[in-house]
């Protein structure tokens, strides 16, 4: 079963009363792949995650988790989940919360492995402290430890860094990269686009319940650009740059095959070249582009 994808979701659909929250969403997450789920508020990301994990019943569609239909409880044995809204038993210590989840998962994980999980999320010295006294960020770290403790093959993280400080976010990024190295698949729902851009192999962009775009980062960000700072740009030189976007002396053009040749031609025409910088559209720019060009009524 290890050659089946970690997640295979096909044509998921969910309506809440009159509101269609998810409308025909399909995607896969490969083994060891980190898939980012992006989209504006209310796009349907959490609904997709909940249907995927069997927490919400879809109106239509199917899901296979780690090679088993998600209607089979065994499909979730090797799945770790950090929900968007988390709350752990305030009267338990961090270690007791982990021990409880290990028992619920029905796996054998030793006390030292539990401590290792707490160490991974920076809570090693708080194992015996009651969760009720934890800050929100510490509770989120604990949630990550809960998601990881039972050695999952798939980890589903719904906004895992919403309560974390910048250092905590960097820790989570490292954690995600180490999961990837261990061939653990990750589905990451995050509004922090920079985070998604840094760790995800592939991205699915949802808008109003539908997949607006999907692909690897190079596929989504394919358009490469060259940014130049130029003065003395004559009409003849400008023709060489077409099509371009201009802000003052800053010109953005499609990346040409031969950058030195373009620069040499510009210089020959008397243009003064102050800076040349190849650039790629950021995921944020691309996301806004995609969402703005979506038809109003889908
Ligand atoms: N239990 C529910 N009852 C009624 N409507 C719901 C329920 N859960 C979600 N919805 C609706 O479904 C739509 C999608 O919500 P969902 O929480 O999946 O979006 P999201 O992309 O995760 O949003 P956010 O980024 O704000 O967390 C929204 O219009 C929401 O109001």
Give the tags.
4-stranded antiparallel beta sheet, 298 residues, 33% helix, 2 domains, alpha/beta, 6-stranded mixed beta sheet, elongated, Alpha-Beta Plaits, binds adenosine-5'-triphosphate, Rossmann fold, single chain
Structure notes:
This protein is α/β, with parallel strands linked by helices and 298 residues long. The longest helix is centred in the middle third of the chain and has 16 residues, at 166-181. It has helices spanning 45-52, 94-105, 111-120, 136-149, 166-181, 193-199, 217-220, 235-241, 259-268, 283-292; strands at 7-16, 19-29, 34-38, 60-65, 68-69, 79-82, 154-158, 185-189, 202-207, 210-216, 224-231, 244-247, 250-254, 272-280. Strand 12 and strand 13 (250-254) form a beta hairpin. It has a 6-stranded mixed β-sheet, with helices on both faces. The protein is built from 10 helices and 14 strands. The protein is elongated. It folds into 2 domains: 7-219, Rossmann fold (3-Layer(aba) Sandwich); 224-280, Alpha-Beta Plaits (2-Layer Sandwich). The chain binds adenosine-5'-triphosphate. The site of adenosine-5'-triphosphate (ATP) has 11 residues, from strand 2 and helix 1.
The CATH H-level superfamily of the largest domain is P-loop containing nucleotide triphosphate hydrolases
Count the beta strands.
14
- Mean pLDDT over the full residue set: 90
Radius of gyration: 24 Å
Major β-sheet annotation? 6 strands, mixed
Which CATH first-tier class of the largest domain would you pick? Alpha Beta
Spatially, the strands of the biggest sheet line up as 6-7-8-3-9-10
Give the domain tally.
2
Number of helices: 10
Strand content: 25-35%
Overall 3D form = elongated
Termini separation comes to 37 Å
Please bin the fraction of helical residues. 25-40%
CATH architecture of the largest domain: 3-Layer(aba) Sandwich
GO molecular function, one term: ATP binding
Keywords: ATP-binding, Nucleotide-binding, Transport
Family: Belongs to the ABC transporter superfamily.
Protein name: ABC transporter ATP-binding protein
